[in-house]
Amino acid sequence: MTAIKTAFQFTRILLTALLLSACSEDSAPTLAAQQAAAIESGDECHLCGMIIGNFPGPKGQLFERGQGRVMKFCSTRDLFAYLLDPEHQHNIQSVFVHDMAISPWDHPDDKTYIDARTAWYVVGSSRKGAMGPTLASFSDKAHADAYAAEYGGQLYPFEQLNLTLLSQMRF
Ligand code: ZN
Ligand code: CU1
C-alpha cells in the first residue's frame, strides 16, 4: 500500500516537472517570432511621419508588448526618442537597428537589422541620418570604434542612452 502511494506521488512530481519545463520552453518561440520587417516604399516613420525609404542613415523598428504590429522609424534618433520616452520605455518588447558596419549608409539593407539592446552606438558623428544628427549603430564594438575614429563621436552601449543625450544632439 505504502509503496503504491509513494510511486503515485513520484509520478505526480515527475509530471509536474515535465509540465513546468514544457511551459518555460513555450515562451521562447513567441519572442523569437518577432523579427525586423522590410521597409516598404510607402512606410512612414511612426514618430515624425517622414517616408522612411527616402532618407539615408540607420533606421529602427520595435514591437511593443502584446502588439503584433511593428513600428518603424526613419532614424535611430526617432527610434530612441520614442523608446526612451518614460511613457513607452517599459512597454517595449523587441527593438532592431541597422548594423552600419555591413549596411551602406545611404540605403541601409533590410537584411542587416540587429538586436538594438546588444548594439553599440556612436553619438555626435559628422554623418547625418533622416532627421540630421543621428546614432550610428553597430553590432561590434570594434566597428563602432573604427567609425568614431573616422567620423567623430562618442561610443555608448544601449543601456547608457538617455533623453538628455538625445536632446544634446543639435538639429
Ligand atoms: Zn522619423
Ligand atoms: Cu523625420
Number of helical elements: 4
Query: What percentage of amino acids are in beta strands?
Result: 15-25%
Total beta strand runs: 7
What small molecules are bound in this structure? zinc ion, copper (I) ion
Q: In which range does the helix fraction lie? A: 25-40%
**Strand numbers in spatial order across the main sheet:** 2-1-3-4
The chain-level mean pLDDT equals 87
Question: Summed up, what is this model?
Answer:
The protein is α+β, with helices and mostly antiparallel strands and 171 residues long. The protein has 4 helices and 7 strands, in the order αββαββββαβα.
Outline the structure in words.
There is one protein chain. A hairpin with a 6-residue loop joins strand 1 and strand 2. The strands form two sheets. A four-stranded antiparallel beta sheet has the order 2-1-3-4, covered by helices on one side. The protein has a three-stranded antiparallel beta sheet with strand order 6-5-7, with helices on one face. The chain has one domain (28-165). With 171 residues, it is of the alpha+beta class. It has helices at 2-32, 76-83, 141-151, 163-167, and strands at residues 60-64, 71-73, 92-98, 113-115, 120-129, 132-138, 154-157. The chain contains four helices and seven strands. It is globular, with a radius of gyration of 22 Å. The termini are far apart. Helices cover 32% and strands 23% of the residues. Copper (I) ion is lined by residues 45, 48, 50, 74, 130-131. Zinc ion binds next to loops.
